[in-house]
Amino acid sequence: MANIQIIQGDFEQKLKLQFAPGIKAGFPSQAEDYSHETLDFNRDLIRNPEATFYGKVEDDSMIEAGINDGDIAVIDRSVEPRDGDIVVGYINEEFTIKYLDLSHRNEGFIELRPANKDFKTIRIDADDDFEVWSVIIWTIKKWR
């Protein structure tokens, strides 16, 4: 069932990326040469560095949600999970990424739902060793 490898992040280093100018149909502006807006992952993507981890996705159980094998998930343990969130669950000593379905809570169980018809829904009963380990807040893809 393990479909994510948890990786501790290093958020002390400041990573900055220069934004590329947008593609326009008109004449280019000479002012675009002086654009200095930056993206800093630590400032813009990470709210709680102490509780944030990366996870390398290891299968296609969430492919219909746009999360593929090899993607990097940015996961935050301080975010309170809600019904419908994509979470990292820790069940019976293994990690998995699935949608959290709390609609059966009154019946005594919850479900972890994949986003791929080739994978089965995981039913979590009181007897299972289970924890919602974290909530996925971002994913990073490699296109090439």
Protein traits:
single chain, 144 residues, mainly beta, Umud Fragment, subunit A, two-stranded antiparallel sheet, 1 helix, 3% helix, globular
What can you tell me about this protein's structure?
- The protein has 144 residues and is mainly β.
- Strands 1-4-5-10-6-7-8-9 form an 8-stranded antiparallel beta sheet, with no helix packed on it. It has a two-stranded antiparallel ribbon with strand order 2-3.
- The mean pLDDT is 83.
- Helix content is 3%, strand content 38%.
- The protein has a domain at 4-8 and 50-140: Umud Fragment, subunit A (Ribbon), CATH 2.10.109.10.
Write the layout of secondary structure elements.
Elements: E1 4-8, E2 16-18, E3 38-40, H1 41-44, E4 52-57, E5 72-76, E6 86-91, E7 94-101, E8 110-113, E9 122-124, E10 130-140
- Global Rg: 19 Å
What is the CATH-assigned architecture of the domain at 4-8 and 50-140? Answer: Ribbon
- Structural class given helices, strands, pairing? mainly beta
Q: What is the name of the CATH topology of the domain at 4-8 and 50-140?
A: Umud Fragment, subunit A
- Order the strands across the largest sheet as they lie in space: 1-4-5-10-6-7-8-9
Provide the residue-averaged pLDDT: 83
Low-pLDDT segments: none
SS elements, strand count: 10
The helix-strand sequence is: EEEHEEEEEEE
Tally of helical runs = 1
Entry summary:
The protein is mostly beta strands and 144 residues long.
